[in-house]
Description:
Chain A has 491 residues and is of the alpha+beta class.
Amino acid sequence: MSQTVGATVSEETWTLRGYEMVVGLEVHVELATRTKLFSASPNRFGDEPNTNIDPVTLGLPGALPVLNRQAVELAMRLGLALDCTVQRSTFARKNYFYPDMPKAYQISQYDEPICVDGWLDLPGSIRVGIERAHLEEDTGKSTHVGGTGGRIHGSDFSLIDFNRAGVPLVEIVSRPDIRTPEQAKAYVSELRAILVAVGASDAKMEEGSMRVDANVSVRLPGAEFGTRCEIKNVNSVRSVGRAIEYEAQRQVAMLEAGESIRQETRHWDENDGRTHTLRSKEDADDYRYFQEPDLVVVDPDPEWIERVRWALPVLPAARRARLADATGQRADAEAILVVTDRDQDAYVLAVAGAGGDAGRALVHVKEAFAEQGERPSVPVADLAKLTRLEIDGKLTATQAKQVLAEIVANGGGDAEAIAASKGFEAMDTSELESKVDDAIAAQPEAWSKFCAGEAKAMGALVGAVMKASSGQADGKAVTALLETRRDIAIA
Amino acid sequence: MPTNSDRQGLPAGVADISWNVRNNVTSAADVLERHLAAIDAREGDIHAFNIVLADEARLRAAEIDEAVAAGRDPGPLAGVPIALKDNMCTRGIPTTCSSRILDGWRPPYDATVVTKLHEAGAIVVGKTNLDEFAMGSSTENSAFGATRNPRDITRVPGGSSGGSAAAVAAGFAAASLGSDTGGSIRQPAALCGVVGVKPTYGAVSRYGLVAFASSLDQIGPFANSVGDAALVLEAISGHDQMDSTSIRRGPFEVSRQLDMGVAGLRIGRIADLPEGASPDVAARLDEAFDALRDAGAEIVDVEVPAFGYGLTAYYLIAPAEASSNLARYDGVRFGHRVEAPDTNAMYMATRTDGFGAEVKRRIMLGTYALSAGYYDAYYGRALKVRRRIAADFAAAYASADVLLTPASPTVAFRLGDKTADPMSMYLCDTYTIPSNLTGDPAMSVPFGTGDDGLPVGIQILAPALEESRMFRTAAELERRAPK
Amino acid sequence: MGRVALGVVSERITPEAVAKVAKLARLSLSDDELQQATHQLSDMLDHFADIDALDLDGVEPMTHPTPISNVMREDIEMDCLDRDEVLAAAPAAQDGRFRVPPVVGLED
Lengths: 491, 483, 108
């Protein structure tokens, strides 16, 4: 997933036979509260079935909902992180029968959501509008037993666990501003990073604490929006891209064949890579929304809103920019994204602050600290010293890697001492240069191809130098020397 | 000290019982046995209860007597036998709402009012019959059969809290709790000749009250005297964090003001009150105004132009909320289920079998009022009428402190008189409905008799949280009631 | 929003509309019951037509009797219900869960 979002998201529009896709995403996230949205039983994933239940969760007669303040605060936090306006809001009942919906209505914010009118900037210059973010309660979980492998149709009976019922959700609805599968994937990744950063949710798609529905239509550029289909069951960032692409292709093919698109809800099947009709919107349910009489208006006062706003952490986009600044032009976007995503960006900056080189620290942290958390066990000073040895030319990148492995294994250590114990000595640049010249002389064919622009040809030359130096040469330094000589040769 | 003496044929009231029990003059056990004896004697004719909790009550009475013997104060309702409408949750004890759909259900928790009664030292003697899910005005819509009026067992006790009203009128309990969504406490109180109070919306917690219409439901007491009703109201009122619509204030303190009289109070007569009261009831209302004028009150004319639209607003709003509140009876988690080959068929079979005709009618009416294409014309419009009614009352209260109307258009009618025509039954609520729409308090106090010597109830209405002046007026009417 | 045409009582709501409402509410009606319900609901809606004449433009709908706001609880766990007790009271249970017949026919 990181590869796709590492680079700046292209502004280029996806088109197929002249059609463009128009996509809006509805993302449901479970909020990281201790208790449920309207009652005091635990909001916890993975417990024994039906152990986190109370009269409100089960919809027992006489039970009444009482709103969880923390859920409201988390919704405000994520809304403000998306530059939404926090406003006076109300709850409504959405009435429908389903065995995992205990009261036969879902309490959800309908016409007066708590957050409206925000936006999310994708890496690059694409801005996706946020229409609204509203609070609602989750349903229980149905397990369909018998028949063919857990599918609803043909099952013998279903078993219901209400642990998840009443867990607080925020539904974040984007505007139909997304035009490519890449943008959709970047939107989901970026939203996920923001949710985690502000502590609103753990946003784990694989555990279902973040779920994505996509509204997809196609049109000729400049034309009115086409008829849209809602795609459900998109359970990974990768599926978001695949499902949208498939669906847009399906719609274009239908239009090209002279057929019209039917507004419907479709189900993404990960196995066959297609979407299938779930239900038609023509016989849409009549949810009979009306304001929930058991709850009162939620109207956060400005003082509360400002308190939440000021307590927001630096958001991922700003952190990435800060890291990019510190590490310089040459740092690759993917490393910045990965390290920020792991919350290790502050560590890299601390290494730089301790006199180390931010660029080299970024590379090491990305490659060697995958298992370490937000606070790596290696003292900042130790990594700073290692990167300094590299910059000073006292260690090659390969040697540095080996030294670091030992530092990581021991939870710290003096790079200089470890390098000495390994017998690493700084390689003289002139020695390396003569090895490069030897390699060029030995392989004139590879050299002329490399000069003609065939990047692959460089491999043979680098390989020869590495062999001559018993693997101790710095690959990057070798590459740089080769490039310099090529530039001189062509000029 | 005791405030009212033993009435003929009736055990002593709330105030006497608790004073005597707390001061070790009588035992809670003795008091209870007298009430259980009354139940034995007449319950067969009246059918006030869905369940009598004699064993539980005896254990509780012994607990209270032990506490007194040990020098502890069991509370302001020490040893007072109280009946609960069977739509209030009682832990481990069946709570049926007089519906087959709750067949066999025992709540795993107590309603807040039940906890509060317990903390005040009261003894729950049983759970009383009601119109199924509190939908009705005669207690004939019960899956377990009708309740009869103790004043005349050929007559209805009113409804929907008919069982609770009858239990007090028959001396089965010193007080009882009912719920009032459109008059379900005040109308049966009037028909049975007892005091019935619908407090300000939010003054008594609804937690554990099985919902009929959430924005209208309110729990309140029945008792044989205004003073007794005040004591019970004080015990059950006050903020509850389990009910989001609960008002943030302490319990009422109305008892102390009952003797203040009405001198200087402005009593409003609603000049444009909808017609429909029978002549005997209208005559008692006139006498009530006279009695209050004699007591020093000023009688003023006010207008509440939208009063008459209350019935329509109510019968669109209440069924709409009910259609949603009653959707949870689906045979999945508790109560009745009729097995069927798939879930949808199970829902259909369970609900069709489990609900009675009136409940189904209101669910359909409410579903219709909320459905796509009709919401604005029915439910949405009714909410605007509700606002209009509230505004009209607010204006009337600028010139009057309380208002008086009949509680019921007529005295108790005969069983079966109105069952064939739902609309005729709905009209019983004409005078009581507006207070539920506005959320303001109202109560019915007995004031003489009408046709066939049956009791007439006068309704006193007051602005929100002005229970004190409402009770002062009620106490004055009680003192001046025709003997 | 469109309101059913005024006129004779029986036209205020059609048997088809009543049937649709009953289905939404998961109630089944026999033909006789459907006719009776249509008649009764029409009769009621006839009575309720009194508010049609009111000018309610600009009147704010009143959803709650008391205008209170911001009632919230702290995010603190309380005791849960006992699963065995709850499942014992359920119409059907299996493996710690509530059991229901197959979930089909809900989309119809």
